[in-house]
Design goal:
10 helices, GNT1/Glycosyltrans_8, 2 domains, Spore Coat Polysaccharide Biosynthesis Protein SpsA, Chain A, Glyco_trans_8, alpha/beta, 3-stranded mixed beta sheet
Length: about 400
C-alpha cells in the first residue's frame, strides 16, 4: 500500500515496461518490494500504446500508479548489434523518469531485477540518525550536485563490464524538466553509444565516476548476474549482503525451463536439475520463481504438475476478486506523446486481430485503476491490439 501524506507525492520506486514480454518481471519486482515491508509508492511507467489492455489491467492491480510515457527508440542497429541485444533500442524510454516532477526522488529498477532486502534507504530525504547494516544514504553532497556537471542523478552502481560507467538498471534520480529536456536533446543529436539507455545516460552523466562517493551505490544494490562467474570468490563472500539482483542478458528467469514439480532445470534447455554449486546464478533464479509462484502466478507448487502456459498466463484475470480490489479513484497519469506506428511485432508475434483495438482519442487510461490496498497473499493472474505511440529518434551520422 502506498504511503500516505507528503511522502507519497515526493518519493517512489519505479520500473518501466515497453512490451508485454517483461510483464511478469515487473509484477514479481513489485511483489518483492512489497515483501520487504516498504510503505513507499511503487509505480510503473508504461510505453504509450505498446502494452495490451489485459496487461495494463493486471499491472494496475499490482502497482500504486501507472504512468503512460511516449515510446522512444534509438533505431541504432549497428550499436545494438555490437551490444548483442537488438531489442534494447526502446529502453531509452526510461528517460521519462526525469519527467516525473511531482516526485522529489525516484528509485528506478529495471523489470528484470529482484529485491531481496529493504532498499527504502534509497528514498530517505533526510539523513537518518543511524543506518541499518548495509544501508546507504544517497544525495548528501560534499560539493554542489556531488561535483557533477549535469543534475538529476543521485546515485547508481558501477557496471561490471566497464566500472567507469554506471549500470542503468538501478539508479536514484531527482526528476526535473531541465534534465528531461537535456536527455531528449542528447538523444536526438548524438544518440546512444550502445544503442540503449545505458549509453545515453552515461554520456549525459559522463562525470559520474569522478563525483563524490554519495553518487555511487554499492554493488549489492545492483548485483548483475555476470558477477556470479567473473569473480566467484567475491560473490561467495558477499552474496549474503545482496539487496537487488539484476538478471541482465537475454535469458530472463521467466524463460527458464522447469520440471513437472516446478523445480528449475539447468539453463534454459537442459533436461537435468541444476547444481547450485556449479550454477550459483540459478539460486537467484529460484528466488525469483519463489516470489512469482507465491504472489503472481496462476500456478503454485500445491496445484499439481507445473504448467508454463498457466504460470505465465497473460489472458487470465484475477479469479479471487477478494484478494486484490481496484480502487474507485483512478490515479493513472499521462505524459505527452505522439502516435506514429504500430509496434505489435514486439509482442512475440501474438495475433491480436480479434481483440478490440484501443483508440488514441483518450490516452488517460482512466479505466485502469491501482490497488487501493495490496495484501501479499497468493493471487491468481490477469494482450488487445493498440495503436502504438512511437517517438523515433535516429542517431545522427558523425
Amino acid at each position: 500500500m502506498a504511503a500516505s501524506g507528503t511522502d507519497q507525492a515526493r518519493v517512489c520506486f519505479a520500473t518501466l515496461l515497453t512490451t508485454d514480454s517483461y510483464m511478469h518481471g515487473a509484477l514479481t519486482l513489485a511483489a518483492s518490494l512489497r515483501a520487504t515491508g516498504t510503505h513507499h509508492e511503487i509505480i510503473c511507467l508504461v510505453a504509450d500504446g505498446q502494452l495490451s489492455r489485459s496487461a495494463l489491467e493486471r499491472l494496475a492491480r499490482a502497482f500504486d500508479r501507472l504512468v503512460t510515457v511516449p515510446l522512444l527508440n534509438t533505431n541504432d542497429a549497428s550499436s545494438l548489434a555490437l551490444l548483442g541485444r537488438p531489442d534494447l533500442g526502446s529502453t531509452v524510454t526510461k528517460i521519462g523518469v526525469w519527467a516525473l516532477t511531482d516526485y522529489e526522488r525516484v528509485a528506478f529498477l529495471d523489470a528484470d531485477t529482484l529485491v531481496l532486502a529493504s532498499i527504502d534507504s534509497l528514498l530517505c530525504l533526510d539523513l537518518p540518525s543511524e543506518l541499518a547494516p548495509g544501508d546507504v544514504h544517497v544525495g548528501r553532497d560534499f560539493r554542489a550536485n556531488g561535483g557533477m556537471l549535469n543534475e538529476g542523478l543521485l546515485a547508481a552502481a558501477p557496471d561490471l563490464g566497464w566500472p567507469d560507467c554506471f549500470n542503468s538498471g538501478v539508479f536514484v534520480a531527482k526528476p526535473s524538466d531541465a534534465t528531461h529536456s537535456g536527455l531528449l536533446s542528447l538523444l536526438a543529436t548524438q544518440g546512444s553509444f550502445d544503442g540503449g539507455d545505458q549509453g545515453l545516460l552515461n554520456a549525459y552523466f559522463a562525470d559520474w565516476s569522478r563525483a563524490d562517493h554519495t553518487r555511487r551505490l554499492p554493488f549489492a544494490y545492483n548485483t548483475t548476474s555476470t558477477s556470479f562467474y567473473t569473480y566467484a570468490p567475491a560473490f561467495a563472500h558477499f552474496s549474503s549482503a545482496i539487496k537487488v539482483v539484476h538478471f541482465i542478458g537475454a535469458h530472463k528467469p521467466w524463460k527458464w525451463h522447469r520440471a513437472l514439480d516446478g523445480s528449475l532445470l539447468l539453463g534454459c534447455t537442459a533436461a537435468t536439475p541444476y547444481d547450485s554449486n556449479a550454477s550459483p546464478f540459478a539460486v537467484f533464479v529460484e528466488k525469483w520463481w519463489n516470489v512469482h509462484d507465491e504472489y503472481v502466478s496462476l500456478w503454485s507448487p500445491d496445484k499439481g504438475d507445473f504448467n508454463a502456459d498457466v504460470a505465465l498466463s497473460l489472458s487470465e484475470q484475477y479469479a479471487s476478486a477478494d484478494v486484490l480490489q481496484p480502487s474507485t479513484t483512478p490515479q493513472t497519469v499521462l505524459l505527452p506523446s505522439s502516435h506514429a506506428m504500430d509496434d505489435a511485432w514486439k509482442r512475440a508475434g501474438t495475433d491480436y486481430s480479434n481483440v478490440e483495438a484501443r483508440t488514441t482519442d483518450n490516452d488517460g487510461w482512466s479505466e485502469f485503476m491501482p490497488a487501493s490496498d495490496f495484501a501479499l497473499s497468493p493471487s491468481t493472474s490477469g494482450p488487445s491490439s493498440s495503436h502504438a505511440s512511437s517517438v523515433q529518434l535516429h542517431r545522427n551520422a558523425d
